């Protein structure tokens, strides 16, 4: 199983099995990295420019892992392990998110990005806090068939009920007093 730079497990044997489309891929199949960040890797950008900025993986018999700038990061909407959905609490300071970004591999972990066994692409998925802990502190795997932890389910339902309360109607008189006792 792959491990983090500190030696804890990430919960997968091959991060690319869980990776999605490259974050740099545009809707028309071009490489946004080469378009927007040409100065970061001029030779890569020149090669892409010569090929009309076509994505490296767009070539025949090519995969995203063939691109030196491939990156696949999560949208963070749902835990990939147990399916718990995120419920964000706007205007709540200190409210910790239910979902966290979990790295399956780390961009540039091998220094030059080509050290053989070290992954060189950033690949992340969303895990709820509870699954994230289980993956790092045990032999739990990202692709386990898991249900949300009871604590996770309770936290999500608590947020949903608070969210519903915020949508409820109350008049200004109810919220701030009617002002009748001032008279």
Automatic annotation (TrEMBL):
- Which parts of the sequence are annotated with region: Disordered? 141-183
- Bias (Basic and acidic residues) occurs at 154-165
Superkingdom:
Archaea
* Family matches, as InterPro entries: DUF7097
Q: Under what name is this protein listed?
A: Uncharacterized protein
Q: Which organism is it from?
A: Halogeometricum pallidum JCM 14848
